[in-house]
Amino acid sequence: MPRSSSPPKPATAPRPTRRKLPPTGGAAAKNEGNGDIEERIFRSVFESVASQRLAPGTKLPEASLCELFGVSRALVRKVLQRLAHDHIVELRPNRGAIVAMPSPEETRQIFEARRALEAALVRMAVRNATRAEVAELRRHLKQEHAAMHRYAQPEWARLASTFHLRVAKLARNPILERYLSELMSRCSLIVALYEPPGNASCEHGEHADVVDAIARGDADEAVRLMEAHLLVLEKNIALDRPASGRSLGQMLGLG
To answer: What's the pTM?
Structure first.
């Protein structure tokens, strides 16, 4: 007697396709780890302050930063805490973050500290700088000069700040160099808050005189010139600054 064939197995229902969720952090963070995107947000705010695109007192709403960079609030808060630690941002309880607004007394103290620090760094730079490094400073001065004649104010401000950090690097003291970087970011806030529009944050000719003194190996003259340069910068500041009408994205260079 032929064996009866087994009844056919019921067809298995197709397994529902799992919907793929977008990576945390959205499009901006798609190809970046959290550390990379955190550093990118930090540098974006820091450099926007240093180049005077972000004025002191500008609100930095967490929701806006999350949307602009496509990241979570937790990551934005971490960046804002770092910026507050470096005195770039002020965190106000229940009112959110703003770009810090140095007072006139803080302004005096910050410039006083910067003059003392740069005097020490310039003296070390004169002792350590090689001919190649002096030549590199002169190339930097050419870039400054070109930006000045193009009336490219943000680029000019960035190059002027970078000049001071380049001189500091020649001192071969990374700790003092880091302190100067923090002081300069606070000076950028002061310049952004108080300096009249259209003024140069640093005079190109004064930078050139400092480089000439470094090239000659004249430490006393280089220190004297740098101190005079910083005193002029401090005297140029005014007491007010009109509010910017640009969006946060535009001030951060994102739109």
So the answer is: 0.67
